[in-house]
Amino acid sequence: MKIFTIANQKGGVGKTSFATHFAFYLIEKGMKGVFIDLDTQVNASYTLEKSFPSSKYAHSLFQDNFSIDNSDEKLTLFLGSNELAEIYSNSSVNEVTKVFYNSIQILKQKGFDFCIIDTAPSLNSSLVAALFSSDYVLSPIEPEKYALQGIEKMINLISNIRKQNNKLIFLGMLISKINRRDPRHIKHYNQLMEKYPGFVLPQAIGLRSSIAEAVDIGIPVWNIKKSAARVASKEIKTVIECILEKTK
Ligand SMILES: Nc1ncnc2c1ncn2[C@@H]1O[C@H](COP(=O)(O)OP(=O)(O)OP(=O)(O)O)[C@@H](O)[C@H]1O
Ligand SMILES: [Mg+2]
């Protein structure tokens, strides 16, 4: 089971839109997986629940006695909920991390091909737990100044976690919601490429309302039959194929 965390403490940069599409894609390729929504906003749960109804909750992965039966479902969805907020406030980072890591080891024994973890826009202990338990981390980023300012913190966190989890691979930054006709976006894109050569995925995802529409109705953008959705689909699929190539 390959474990991917999608993380950036900056909000609204496209984490959930990418994470949900990644899951749809892998399932369509015949894989079986787990999706963990670690965000009290429950956006990913909303999008995926329509195709993959669930009564499992992500907060159960932070409890000592976690167990799970074998499942034939294509996607086992661990829903986000408000209970996640209590976990962060009631226990130390080390405790939270240890318990979550143990739950992931249990999931690993159940024959899943992948696990995608969508995280909240904050530096909380569940993010540390997710990174500590993952093989790969991807950071979507918007080409806006505030987002650029935040990425440094994210990179520092990843390199600190790597001191304890040396198998964690940073797949890089995924530029999302870029308007290639906007000189400000192009300027910020170029700044990122200059400052972090090798850490920015060569493929980017444009500012495309069909992506927002798809996650709203709970389907992948490639199932929207509009010509505008075709470009968005191609962009997302190219990014996913690039990631799969890197993680073979
Ligand atoms: N490529 C895109 N083009 C246009 N809109 C997008 C794109 N990607 C995401 N959106 C929209 O932007 C908003 C934020 O996206 P999303 O929820 O994926 O970001 P996020 O990083 O998960 O946010 P949060 O940090 O709040 O969890 C959503 O309304 C979504 O529909
Ligand atoms: Mg989100």
TrEMBL record:
It comes from the Bacteria. Residues 1-167 form the AAA domain. SUPFAM superfamilies: P-loop containing nucleoside triphosphate hydrolases. Coiled coil: none annotated. It holds the Pfam family AAA_31. This is Sporulation initiation inhibitor protein soj. It comes from Phocoenobacter uteri. The lineage of its organism: Bacteria, Pseudomonadati, Pseudomonadota, Gammaproteobacteria, Pasteurellales. The gene is soj.
